[in-house]
Design brief:
Blueprint: H1 2-18, E1 21-27, H2 35-42, H3 45-48, E2 51-57, H4 61-70, E3 75-78, H5 80-88, E4 93-98, E5 106-110, E6 123-126, H6 132-143, E7 153-156, H7 160-168, E8 174-177, E9 190-195, E10 209-213, H8 214-219, H9 221-240, H10 242-253, H11 258-268, H12 280-292, H13 301-304, H14 308-315, H15 318-325
Parallel strand pairs: 1-2, 1-3, 6-7
Antiparallel strand pairs: 3-10, 4-10, 5-8, 5-9
Helix pairs in contact: 2-9, 2-10, 5-12, 9-15
Length: 326
């Protein structure tokens, strides 16, 4: 009888393991604002919550959103701008959480550039058009009184490290940089001409939002919830385990520069949301800008944001328990 019970138990365990939902998940950057995504991968947090995840790095949130639309991935990290632009183009995408709701960027330029006027006619390197770095570049250039595209060329140059390489090679005169990335420009004469902190008003912006298609959210709601739980725990890990998080940042970014790692951690840890609700003002701004490029089209906040799973997890005490007991 004992053998039969044991066999039944082993069969049930085996069924549970094999019944884990398989899902493709993408993160758009190897820098610190995406750390909770690869922490969830590295620490096997997806598996902890019953998801067999294929975690894929796809540079640029715009490309991630396109992959979701095309169906090659099911969930990914999208910025507010990329989500709004896709929605006004007719894509059926929705954000279910936002882990960072601001743009902590600085505009790094050649040391010879002393004023906004010196930037006229030059090029600024971004990741991709429609990406967070694109939004940051345009906001910072306007903060300098410049007209993006008209006064300054905006060119696609790749990740933070790739933008530094383009800067080093003289292909761009400057680039928008998240916290810490500037330290990769060591040995290159440079200066920071403006940061988002210099703007008269703080910049609300959904920077790192868990995004999927509306149809997948409806048909796989429990899977999306479990992925969200893993990412929230990944956020908790980043906020509470500094040195281990820096080691993972070094592993995935392939950068061992201590100043970069320290600056990236200190610049991003405070802005990670414990409860990843989206900043409505920031998303509304992105929707308004997207609609300006599509006259006659209508789009509301509720059309592209569904935070019910975050609200549910908060009501269930999942987030409070995580921070109180670990």
């Amino acid at each position: 009888m004992l053998g039969l019970v044991l066999l039944s138990f082993l069969l049930l365990v085996g069924m549970e393991v094999h019944s884990q939902e398989r899902v493709s998940i993408s993160y758009s950057s190897v820098e610190a604002p995406n750390a909770n995504w690869y922490i969830a991968q590295d620490r096997k947090l997806y598996q902890k919550y019953g998801v067999e995840a294929e975690s894929i790095y796809i540079p640029s949130s715009t490309t991630v959103i396109n992959a979701i639309i095309g169906g090659s991935i099911k969930l990914g990290n999208g910025s507010g701008g990329a989500i709004a632009n896709a929605a006004v183009a007719g894509a059926n995408v929705v954000a279910v959480a936002s882990f960072i709701n601001t743009l902590p960027y600085e505009l790094v330029v050649q040391e010879s550039i002393k004023s906004a006027a010196d930037l006229k006619g030059k090029a600024i390197g971004i990741a991709r058009l429609g990406s967070s770095s694109d939004v940051a570049a345009r906001v910072l250039l306007r903060g300098l009184g410049l007209d993006p595209d008209k006064d300054v060329a905006i060119v696609q140059s790749g990740s933070g490290a790739e933008r530094v390489a383009a800067f080093r090679g003289g292909r761009v005169a400057g680039f928008p940089s998240p916290p810490g990335v500037i330290h990769l420009a060591k040995g290159i004469p440079h200066r920071v001409i403006i940061t988002t902190a210099d703007l008269p008003k703080s910049l609300p912006f959904p920077y790192a939002a868990l995004t999927t298609s509306k149809s997948y959210l409806v048909s796989h709601r429990d899977t999306v919830k479990r992925v969200l739980m893993a990412l929230i725990e990944g956020t908790h890990f980043f906020k509470t385990r500094k040195e281990e998080s820096k080691r993972l940042l070094a592993k995935y970014s392939k950068q061992n520069n201590e100043a970069f790692l320290e600056g990236s951690y200190l610049g991003n840890e405070p802005i990670y949301e414990k409860v990843p609700l989206m900043n409505r003002e920031g998303m509304d701004i992105q929707i308004k800008e997207a609609l300006a490029r599509r006259p006659g089209f209508t789009l509301k906040y509720e059309d592209v944001v569904d935070e019910s799973l975050v609200v549910q997890l908060e009501k269930e005490g999942f987030i409070q328990k995580l921070y109180n007991t670990k």
